Amino acid sequence: MSDSLILPWLFCSCLFSAVTLAALYLRRKMNGFVPGDRSPPSLPSLPIIGSLLSLITDSPPHIYFQQLQKKYGDLYSLMMGSHKVLIVNNHHHAKEILIKKGKIFAGRPRTVTTDMLTRDGKDIAFGDYSSTWKFHRKMVHGALCMFGEGSVSIEKIICREASSMCDMLTESQNSAVDLAPELTRAVTNVVCALCFNSSYKRGDAEFESMLQYSQGIVDTVAKDSLVDIFPWLQIFPNKDLKILRKCVSIRDKLLQKKYEEHKVDYSDNVQRDLLDALLRAKRSSENNNTSTHDVGLTEDHVLMTVGDIFGAGVETTTTVLKWSIAYLVHNPQVQRKIQEELDNKIGKDRHPQLSDRGNLPYLEATIREVLRIRPVAPLFIPHVALQDSSVGEYTVQKGTRVIINLWSLHHDEKEWKNPELFDPGRFLNEEGNGLCCPSASYLPFGAGVRVCLGEALAKMELFLFLSWILQRFTLEMPTGQPLPDLQGKFGVVLQPKKFKVVAKLRADWEKFPLIPLIKCGKYSFIYKKKVTMDTKLKRGTRLESKFKKKKKAIGLQSLRHLQAHTHTHTLTLTAQCQNSAMTTSLGKTYDHISFTVSYPT
């Protein structure tokens, strides 16, 4: 081609390309194919590694993403290797993604770590959005409703663990105690009772194994893993993956054991726990010809769901309780106000119950404020766009990963006055006698199709554990020790750093016994000074008359006083008979009872 023809040819080619692109643009606009039709601001990116160099910082991710918001705006993107990631920092965009376009953004990314944890996404939290997932979630939601809020059985379980916690605090009062292990044990027992109808004592081998593998999974997953960005790296030796495989193997053996036990003992007429409910739902779907071909529901789905509830339900709730205690010792005036509310509305004749939640707005507001100021998951589990769409004015391509920065939502100065100030009053109405939500920028449990299934259970646990503890104890820092650090350590959840507290029995409670914790026929009433007496009652002996013969022992009047401090206003003892256990009410005759009683000297 001669030089004289090159310029006209280039001009015609450019003109044709411009016209073609303009036509395509207009067509897409008219068809609404890509609303907004422009990409959000983006961090610098390089081939292969993406924006990783721009993410090198000493700040935890949720804080750094909030800082980048000042430069790039509320919505910006970055590249994690070859994956495009959209960072969301305000509630308008978050709710558009979670609620308005929830099904479009309901996908989950596949990573090496999550595939290992969930048997390739066969759980609820990390499973990809599909007909199988929808059926699976519906089944789990129905099962949880049977044992969730309003369930008498789950309330009794939580109260039992709260009572055990109070016993421990009474025994160690005025001593510095790290409550983290006890909180973990208590919450783990609640979840075990919910899932397996099991509860464990301190030192139980199976229980200790459970705690060990759970902590191993948390510690391993918490580390930044390049193998999730560059999966091909798993061909090289990886210490963290090796530990994770070992912990998952221990977990799976336990889950399989419980599953096999439940299959043997299963009855359509009795549902003891969540695993029974899931088995029933699975069998019902099979009997109704909802075959695995239709929904892909397998034994793995049931096991991984229980693993989900166990794993997420323990770590998150325990962490919120630890943050609550940290903020209460930082703010003794808040603690006193909660105790005044408990004294006025509950008194000292009984323990708090779930039905009291409406009468304890300040305690409920405090829990909400803890969830706001230190969200347990400051970054939501990533979502994935399942088709081309938009967020706000920006185009979002299919396959884009979306991370909602809950920290930014809960610390948005446009939505919250003094967001770093701990102020439960912001969640109270003007009269101070009812709850309110002062901002739409509050999503502690998410929203939409991916909302947290354990929300109701978590709220029950937080309310009952905190109300039981604060009703009789004041939490303080040990003399000479600094207050807990409130920055937290980012990982699977945002954890407070380790700290110890002193639990002091409140003055008004020193002369009152704790409500007995029932354990295998042994009952313990704790007074200011503990004196124990073990005895056996012969057939026909009345409990009151036995004590009346003892100098300085509990007489009939005191026993009635104890009776008035129980939930049911009936003190129940379990008689250990030769062939079976028998439960009778106070004042009746007994066979042989082995019990422990503490009474004032």
Automatic annotation (TrEMBL):
Keyword Mitochondrion: no
Compartments reported by the entry: Membrane
Residues engaged in binding heme: 452
The keyword Transferase appears for this protein: no
GO terms for biological process, alphabetical: androst-4-ene-3,17-dione biosynthetic process; female sex determination; hormone biosynthetic process; male sex determination; progesterone metabolic process
Keywords from the named record: Heme, Iron, Membrane, Metal-binding, Monooxygenase, Oxidoreductase
InterPro entries linked: Cyt_P450 (IPR001128), Cyt_P450_CS (IPR017972), Cyt_P450_E_grp-I (IPR002401), Cyt_P450_sf (IPR036396)
PROSITE patterns named among the record's database cross-references: CYTOCHROME_P450
MF-aspect GO terms: 17-alpha,20-alpha-dihydroxypregn-4-en-3-one dehydrogenase [NAD(P)+] activity; heme binding; iron ion binding; steroid 17-alpha-monooxygenase activity
Cofactor(s) the protein needs: heme
GO cellular component terms, A-Z: membrane
Homology family: Belongs to the cytochrome P450 family.
Name the UniProt record assigns to this protein: Cytochrome P450, family 17, subfamily A, polypeptide 1
Organism: Cyprinus carpio carpio
Species classification: Eukaryota, Metazoa, Chordata, Craniata, Vertebrata
